[in-house]
Amino acid sequence: MPPRTLYRKLIDSHTVASLDEQNILLFCDLHLMNEYTSPQAFAGLYEEGRGVPMPGQNVAVVSHIIPTHPGKIRVIADPPSALQARYLKKNCDTFGIPLFDTNDPLQGIEHVVAPEHGMIRPGMVVICGDSHTTTYGALGALGFGIGTTEVEHVLATQTLVYRVARTMHIRVDGQLARGVTAKDLVLAIIGRIGARGALGYVLEYSGSAIDALSIEARFTLCNMIVEAGARGALIAPDDKAVDYVLRRAPDLAGPHRAAALQAWRDLRSDEGAVFDAVHVFDASMIAPQVTWGTSPDQVIAVDQHVPRLDQLEEGAARSSGARAMEYARLAAGTAIEGTPIQHVFIGSCTNGRIEDLRAAADVVRGRHVAPGVRAMVVPGSGTVKRAAEAEGLDRVFIDAGFEWRNAGCSMCLAMNDDVLGDGVRCASTTNRNFEGRQGRGAITHLMSPAMAAAAATTGCITDIRRLERAQ
């Protein structure tokens, strides 16, 4: 057998049947669902009189529409959203599917909840009606988003008609400098290869800089690469990944544990495996990043300037750049650092984990939110929230003038009651800065949790390295 990539190994081990040269029937180990991509799929099952043959390999989470206001009981006030949540519960009860419901103490964002409870393991294929399912590649699992029609197919068969992707290798060596995080690294990668640079590819990260990252940082890296069009992202599971899973998977014991460890050892690309595309990065050259436009690839280092139009490639890049500057109310050639902000959001499936909250708390400890700024911290799950409170992080944020919220997607997208107003500029740890993403007319600047925390305390986009030097 010729050398295979990790991606090819995962595909081969989950192929039920080859349909043609490009398409296969793929078995899915775990299917995650949320409240907004599942209703039509369940309706299709009812209409055709189909059941769900493997309900235990499907898990549902109410996450996008849930309110995050402080309080023990959460009530979804928006009638259509409340209806979505009720339908999800009814459907899960009918088909015997586990559900993290609105007031479940473990409730949170699906991409935070699943790995923290040991559901994600190396070698799995995990799918969800949400594009950021790529997150699970941090543990050596192939995760990717699917559409509503595909959700119905998976519910009915636990399989998916799947078009095999091309492969890309992104190697990152060197050491990230102080103040530079995985969020900065992935923004820099997207900035270089473009919003369509990984379109049609499943990529594999490797290199000394990747090896040095924590698992939570790797989640960030795999989560956001979908913004370059990637169909999936993978990191070969190492001791860190194995330890992360074993600490959260008590069912893996005795012979099952031994068999799993044996299988996981082979989950890496063979020497000599050929990728369709290769990119190489030097981690030491990455600076803290900030987006200036309305696409994650419209990004610069915090000490750089918004590009002039003649610096952008003629054609689509230049026209979209001009529109983005107009929407973001920024002038070409101006410094991004010092741009005033009115809102800060720390959270999301990209940066709502405990390490992210610790990094932000380290910045705000002993400081206060600047006048005229509203700042929010939304943990990615109930588990993260309790862990942060046990460490006293909630008090750090509250004492600094932040709002300490309940878990959920919150202001990552305007699907709940955490919505920004027209013209409000937000320093955000989320994954997308599209027009209207956080509210009609709202302006989003993507950055790391530390950078967002720095913006909160200064009232403007601030180089975290400048703040660190002042300490």
TrEMBL record:
Pathway listed: Amino-acid biosynthesis; L-leucine biosynthesis; L-leucine from 3-methyl-2-oxobutanoate: step 2/4
EC numbers, comma separated: 4.2.1.33
Record has Cell membrane as a keyword: no
Cofactor: [4Fe-4S] cluster
Entry keyword set: 4Fe-4S, Amino-acid biosynthesis, Branched-chain amino acid biosynthesis, Iron, Iron-sulfur, Leucine biosynthesis, Lyase, Metal-binding
Domain of life: Bacteria
SUPFAM superfamilies per record: Aconitase iron-sulfur domain (SSF53732)
Domain (Aconitase/3-isopropylmalate dehydratase large subunit alpha/beta/alpha): residue spans on this chain: 9-459
Transmembrane segments: none
Reactions performed catalytically: (2R,3S)-3-isopropylmalate = (2S)-2-isopropylmalate
Enzyme class: lyase
Short name of one Pfam family: Aconitase
Record note on quaternary structure: Heterodimer of LeuC and LeuD.
Function statement: Catalyzes the isomerization between 2-isopropylmalate and 3-isopropylmalate, via the formation of 2-isopropylmaleate.
Protein's name in the database: 3-isopropylmalate dehydratase
